[in-house]
Amino acid sequence: MDRTRKQFAVIGLGRFGTSVAITLQSLGHEVLAVDADEERVRKLSDSVTHVVQANTTDENSLNALGLRNFDAVVVAIGEDVQANVATTLLLKEMGIPFIIAKAKNALHGKMLEKIGADRVVYPERDMGQRVAHSLISSNVLDYIELSPNLSLVEVTAPGLFVGRTLQQTNMRALYGVNVVAIKRYDTLIVPPEPDEIIQDCDILIVIGSSEGVQRLEVLG
Ligand code: ADP
Question: How far from each other are the two terminal CA atoms of the chain, in whole angstroms?
Answer without folding.
Answer: 54
